[in-house]
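## retry 2 of 3
previous attempt timed out at serialization; input unchanged, resubmitting
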Amino acid sequence: MEMERQIFLVDDDASIRKAMRRFLNSVGFEVQAFASAEEFLEFISPQVFGCLILDVRLPGLSGLELQGRLRDMGSRLKVIFITAFADNKLLERTSALGAVAFFEKPVDHKKLLQALLSVWDDAKETPDLK
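## retry succeeded, writing output
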């Protein structure tokens, strides 16, 4: 049985949410988009598997803070960080938090797709995620 390829997107920029959703839908992913970390936390439960594309800089709770909260709740989501303000220190922090990938905006769609597909390839090999 094929795993559902669920994507969650948290970005405060409506144009990025719209463009990213359009692209991801076109390549077969289901996408649910949120304008804030707080909105996403109200929706998500720890049992859900999928991939979260998460902007680092958000009003209110930041992407890094959200990732920490998800980790504390035992979330099974895999996280890909995106930002318009990349630097090596930030890349190291997101990696230390267990991020699958880190992309600078504008995001290269081909590289993003490769990272997303690797999430489901890895999940197929992990018995508790099937």
